Amino acid sequence: RITDTSFDSFHAIISVCHTNLSLSHQSQHHIEMAPTPGSNQCEIVLVGCGAPLRGMGWYHAQQLLNNECPSGKLCYVVEPWFMGQGATGPGGPEFTKFMEDTKRDHGVEFLSSIQDLPAPKANRLALISGRTADNPRLLQEAIGVRLRCKQKIIRFPKFS
After folding, report:
1. Which among 14, 48, 60, 137 counts the fewest CB atoms within 10 Å?
2. Is the C-alpha dihedral spanning 107, 111, 114, 119 positive or negative?
C-alpha cells in the first residue's frame, strides 16, 4: 500500500494485495527486461502516461523514476494512444523520446494494452491516469482482465 504524501494527486489507484497471481490469459508478449521491485516494494503499472510535460501520468512517472515513492517501483507503462493512433500526432514524438530514454535509463517496459501485461512477479499496483472518459474502461480492464484486483482504491485529485 502506497502512503507517501507525494502521491496525493493520483487519479485512480488499484492495488493487488497478494503475490503469485495465476492468470488464465497469458500475454502473447513475453517481457524479460522490466525492473524487479525490491523486497519491500510493489510493481507499479502506470496506465495512461500522456504527453511529456503535459500529461498527469507523465508527472507521476517522473515521481516514481525519481524514487519519491520508496514502497513501489515503476515497472510498466501502458499507453494506448501514443503507442497507437497518436504516435505521429501532437505529443507523439515527445512521448517516443521519453519512452526510449526511460527504457534505456530505467528498464521500464512500455505496452499499448493492459492485455499485454505479463503475470505479476510481486504485489502489483496500477495507477490509472488516462483521460476522464477512458478511465472507467481502463479501470474495468485492470480489474477484470489482467490484474484480478481484490482491493480497489480510487482517489481523485485535490482541488484548491
Report:
1. 137
2. negative
